[in-house]
Design a protein that fits this description.
Blueprint (H helix, E strand, L loop, with lengths): L1 H8 L15 H15 L1 H22 L3 H18 L1 H11 L6 H5 L6 H29 L9 H5 L5 H22 L2 H8 L3 H14 L1 H19 L6 H19 L6
Helix pairs in contact: 2-3, 2-13, 3-4, 3-13, 4-7, 5-10, 5-13, 7-9, 10-11, 11-12, 12-13
Length: 260
């Protein structure tokens, strides 16, 4: 009876009090992410290598089909939060004074399998819509099909300004929607085994409560990821795991810890 009373007295995921953030907090999260990376570098480099290989595989397989490169790049970005699940587990282990384990990080999804699956299905729908929108934008705005040898030059050519602007606007809309619903969702599902809908709504609430700070955080993630991709995706070895660890600390500050 006491257990039932305690459970009933705890706030639901939709009524959790969320923290009010400062503009300096995103940089603090990055600093904490860097600290965690240095404390378990082998785990971080493993996941960083996964991001690196994903980037090269995407480019190598679809380098002769530029339209599909643009479409499937959405899947590359959407897979990031799930691939970082192991990094969240490592940061939680460090927080609890435990030794992080690569094996444990690879199996971190098991306790919340159903919620993770539902959330993955929602993101998959977003990815399909984004991919379709990318193909439509490419077909309607590109004047000629660029060759694979001059793909990047063709995509940024001023003759294709309409494509550049349209693709950025459409991509920003989808990216913003995904960011709103997933910025702290997966760490919350991992930490609390809450349902996917409650986690997504809590993430949405956090962004509405701290719009400027979360906009800065999204900008840091986007800019860091783009810069990390430029030197043959090599920067993802470090940037991806640091951002993964930092996202855990963002969740920890935004959402109060559950009652013991």
């Amino acid at each position: 009876m006491a257990d039932l009373y305690q459970e009933a007295s705890q706030p639901s995921a939709l009524s959790l009090p969320l923290a009010n953030l400062q503009l300096s907090d995103p940089l603090h999260w990055v600093a904490l992410g860097w600290r965690d990376f240095l404390r378990c570098p082998r785990i971080g480099l493993f996941y960083g290598m996964c991001f690196l290989l994903m980037g090269h595989a995407l480019w190598l397989v679809f380098q002769h089909a530029p339209a599909y490169v643009l479409a499937l790049s959405a899947g590359f970005m959407l897979s990031g939060p799930f691939l970082c699940l192991g990094l969240y587990d490592a940061s939680r282990a460090l927080e609890e004074q435990r030794v992080p384990s690569l094996r444990s990080s690879l199996l971190a999804w098991r306790p919340a399998l159903s919620s993770m699956a539902i959330f993955a299905a929602v993101l998959l729908i977003f990815e399909m819509l984004w991919s379709r929108a990318s193909l439509v934008v490419f077909a309607l705005t590109m004047k000629t099909m660029p060759s694979s040898e001059h793909l990047l030059a063709a995509l940024v050519n001023m003759e294709n300004l309409g494509f550049i602007v349209t693709y950025m606007v459409v991509g920003s809309l989808f990216a913003g929607l995904i960011f709103l619903t997933s910025v702290i969702s997966i760490p919350m599902i991992l930490d609390r085994q809450t349902d996917a809908i409650s986690a997504a709504l809590t993430s949405f609430r956090a962004c509405l409560q701290n719009p400027l700070v979360m906009l800065c955080w999204g900008g840091i993630i986007a800019l860091s990821t783009v810069l990390a991709m430029l030197p043959a995706f090599l920067g993802l070895l470090i940037v991806a795991p640091v951002l993964g660890h930092a996202t855990w600390h963002a969740y920890r500050q935004i959402v109060p810890q559950p009652l013991a």
